[in-house]
# Entry
Amino acid sequence: MTGVDEKQPPPEADEISVADLVRDVALALHEGESQRAAGLVIDLHPRDLADVIELLSPEHRVALIQALGPAFNYEVLSEIDETVRDQLSEALPNELLAKAVTELDTDDAAYLIENLEQADRDEILAQLPKGERAALERQLEYPEESAGRLMQSDFVAVAPYWTVGQVIDHARETDDLPETFSEIFVVDPAFRVLGSIDLARLLRSKRDMPVTEIMDTDLDTVLATADQEEVARQFERYDLMSAPVVDENGKLVGVITVDDIVEVIQDEADEDMRALGGVGDESIGDTVTQTAQSRVPWLIVNLGTAVLASFVIKMFDATIEQMVALAVLMPVVASIGGNAGTQTMTVTVRALATNKLGAANAGRIIMRESAVGLVNGFVLSLIMAGIVFLWFGSTKLGAVIGMAMVVNLMAAALAGILIPLALDRLKLDPAPASGVFVTMITDCTGFFVFLGLASLILL
# Structure
């Protein structure tokens, strides 16, 4: 392992862009000058270094980490994109991963090794101290994206008969406490949570005061098996800064802090955005094969719905042949319906994800969206009818496309809310599936109504 050249001056943040820094680091590594590459990034913040590592090629990522040697901050691994982190976990030696696991919080350590082969995971765990190994193995037993995986297993817990002075002395003299904490939990002999004490309140209390007199008993506990999205909603709803995590027996097993929840909210929002686009759980670091496998299933479904819309058009091919203007205007009807349906669908899916839409208000929201669709339909139909009259000089054609747009926007509004609601009722994720079916309904409805009215009124 190559050491870091301490004489190499680090770049100032305002002197070099990330793109230029990545280029310079990659060039240094390509030329075999690992000391220069390490010197370029050694003083970067872990989040900034994570960005640089993500932008490097896979072989340069490993080379840079090895070039940094003992100067590498393992916190960087908790900031890196999940796909890139998994690739690094496979590429880096197990000795380095074992060192990283001992330096990271238990939740970040679990993410680092959770997708490794069982043999590699066992080899890394075997190098850990007994207590750390047991805590990490217990955390890995919880389901992915659960509170148990999200929590930190390091916390401070004291007995209810202790005084403030005893707690302060315990915090000063005990070596294996968390590096940072802001809350102390009071537990009974079975390790069930009785209350919590804010660190500021503890420091302002007299030493001889029992902790039971200053603890807060109004706690919002989190079950270790609860889904992390539900936990995030709990934090948001009750403005929590932290929450104790308990197992099925009510025993305290960890703590979740608000910084963990911020990452969950960001991840869930990204997941919903990707799902609405039909791209699944993919990352910018995925390979061509992984990306194609993620995208092609919904593209196949979309192809099927497009073929169905083509069958609707085929039903009116004779009508289109007699009036070419219909072929010119068909995309307008379908496009505006698809956009309107996407607007409603996006709002609905997000409302379902945040528990803002359910049986209690579904009827009212459906009526609202229907009214919005009707109003928008009338407004846009008047505009489009005027354009068609000026373009083709036909009042009847303007009336046909106007009526078709009213009907299609109503259908788009109803599809945009009813399809996600139906999928949610069936316990299916509405985010990835809704877009395809909403587009199918708006295309088929738009084509059928527009061409059907044209055949009845114009021919």
Summary: The CA atoms of residues 157 and 185 lie 5 Å apart.
